[in-house]
Amino acid sequence: QVQLVESGGGLVQAGGSLRLSCATSGRTFSSMGWFRQAPGKEREFVATIIRSGGATYYADSVKGRFTISRDNAKNTVSLQMNNLKPEDTAVYYCNSTPPLNDWGQGTQVTVSS
Predict the structure, then answer these.
(1) pLDDT grade for 27, boundaries at 50, 70 and 90
(2) Residue 19, C-beta contacts closer than 8 angstroms, at least 6 positions apart
(3) How far apart are CA 25 and CA 5, in angstroms?
(4) Is the CA virtual torsion 95, 62, 77, 8 positive or negative?
(5) Does 111 have pLDDT greater than 90?
């Protein structure tokens, strides 16, 4: 059974930084990504990284501020978030890309203005 466990969220002021981590088990994914869901909004794509070669892709809203990385040996994927904005406030989830139907509990990121 696939397990996705996100961590690293918190409360930060605008302009600050956070680093999210995701531990995966039960399966190896060719690509992994981060998604987020703000209150009252649909879950949206944030970033993805390809296992082989390490190519990365980002949503326009986070490009230049967020960096996704992965450790294939440890089956972890991380998201370094810099210059955070209040509109980045959301619950952040990791999953394969495209995502499976099963999701972890997510990690809350709150950015105050």
Answers:
(1) confident
(2) 8, 78, 79, 80, 81
(3) 9
(4) negative
(5) yes
